[in-house]
């Protein structure tokens, strides 16, 4: 993967406002990519300085290994889970 792709994904994630979320597919589309998996791979490499927790699976579920922390960070921004899922229709960022 090239540096430009990496930076496009980082820019999209950085732009998600507090209290809003995007799916991996949403991030891919906004970054001009056709693979949500590529977004996941990029985010696994380096997003410590980004609001990584605002990116979810398309069904509103969070990363299982980060579940507690991710839900905690989202809750602090007013994004509330319902049955362990984030209601995407309510919190998805639309600009």
UniProtKB/TrEMBL annotation:
This protein's record includes keyword DNA damage: yes
Methylated-DNA-[protein]-cysteine S-methyltransferase DNA binding domain ranges (all copies): 6-79
Keyword match DNA damage: yes
InterPro entries referenced in this protein's UniProt entry, alphabetically: ATL_DNA_repair, MethylDNA_cys_MeTrfase_DNA-bd, MethylDNA_cys_MeTrfase_DNAb, WH-like_DNA-bd_sf
Domain of life: Bacteria
Keywords, comma-separated and alphabetical: DNA damage
Gene3D superfamilies associated with the record: Winged helix-like DNA-binding domain superfamily/Winged helix DNA-binding domain
Protein known as: MGMT family protein
Source organism of the structure: Saccharopolyspora ipomoeae
């Amino acid at each position: 993967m090239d540096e430009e792709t990496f930076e496009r994904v980082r820019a999209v994630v950085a732009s998600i406002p507090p209290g809003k979320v995007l799916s991996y597919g949403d991030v891919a589309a906004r970054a001009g990519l056709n693979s949500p998996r590529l977004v996941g791979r990029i985010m696994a490499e380096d997003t410590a300085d980004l609001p990584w927790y605002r990116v979810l699976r398309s069904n509103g579920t969070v990363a299982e290994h980060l579940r507690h922390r991710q839900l905690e960070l989202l809750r602090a921004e007013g994004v509330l889970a319902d049955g362990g899922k984030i209601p995407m229709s309510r919190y998805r960022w639309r600009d």
